[in-house]
Amino acid sequence: MDSFGGKRAVVTGGGSGMGRELVVQLAAAGCSVATCDVNPAGLAETLARAQAAAPPATRVTTCICDVSEEPEVLAFRDAVVDAHGGVIELLFNNAGIGGAGSFITDSREDWERTFGVDWWGVYYCTRAFLPALIAADEARLVNTSSVNGFWASLGPGIPHTAYSTAKFAVKGFSESLIEDLRVNAPHVKVSVVMPGHIGTDIVANSRRYFGRPEPDALSESDLATTRSELARRGLAADEFSSDQLRALVKMLEEGFRDGAPLDAAAAATIILDGVLAGKWRILVGDDAHRLDQQVRANPEAAYDHAGVGINPLAIATELQQE
């Protein structure tokens, strides 16, 4: 695929972050795009930005859809067929949330909801849209995994099981499709995307997806849970008043977005460049490359926090100093 002009794409999770930037950049290149999200306001902003950037005759449509619910995915597919026809050249399975870090202490419901979006969303959308990809002359399936698809941690004291398990599944699914597509639909290719820390609102969006209150509305019960989580990360949360802790939670959410080494627009550009280059494996961000190198160099030590193990904060510090 040498350009996106005149192509048709589906992007999940297009209401913010990398999904929004994928929609806007694809539309600007003359690619018609159908996108979905659970956030109507976010989708409206994406639509306005994409339409402003797009050349004439480029169509951009939106749909409310929770990709963890197959009936909603099928309704989204039907809407795409109605608006764009039964052929697409690009499917970006980008939607994702965080949450339920611990398999032991977090609720089963939260764990399965996180896994549902991050894995079943990819599975359901691939099932739903694969016939439209196969109907194209050439097409590409682009699945967003993560560095947590090859390293299942956020560092010392921070379990990350639901998200990491799903992202390992996405990576394995994508790699297994390489040969399957080569045998059964050789004109359809697959790419797996593995971003590092990207400046998005995934932390805040995940909280909202679970129906949790805004930081300034956290109850004392919520704050008690937050204190325990921060204590596991080595922060003396007991020293904070309730209002200070609420402000800290908000600061951490905004800091994840604003303090990232790579913003969502730059990440989307790397992904799209990788697709045009025909890459099946697209690492996004210097931290992703560094983590990949360290895990491959010494996998036995990947979780050895006491010695030579991997620490993403140390990697981020190193990159800032270079």
Brief rundown of the structure:
This protein is an alpha/beta fold. It is 51% helix and 13% strand.
Describe this structure in words.
- This protein has 322 residues and is an alpha/beta fold.
- It folds into 2 domains: 8-200 and 262-321, Rossmann fold, CATH 3.40.50; 215-252, no CATH class.
- Helices cover 51% and strands 13% of the residues.
- It contains 11 helices and 9 strands.
- The strands form 2 sheets. Strands 3-2-1-4-5-6-9 form a 7-stranded parallel β-sheet, with helices on both faces.
- It is globular.
- The mean pLDDT is 93.
How would you describe this structure in keywords?
2 domains; 13% strand; alpha/beta; globular; seven-stranded parallel β-sheet; 322 residues
SSE layout and pairing:
Elements: E1 8-12, H1 17-28, E2 32-37, H2 40-53, E3 60-64, H3 70-84, E4 90-93, H4 108-134, E5 139-144, H5 161-184, E6 188-195, E7 198-199, H6 202-209, H7 220-232, H8 242-258, E8 262-263, H9 264-276, E9 281-284, H10 286-297, H11 312-321
Parallel strand pairs: 1-2, 1-4, 2-3, 4-5, 5-6, 6-9, 7-8
Helix pairs in contact: 1-2, 1-9, 3-4, 4-5, 7-8, 10-11
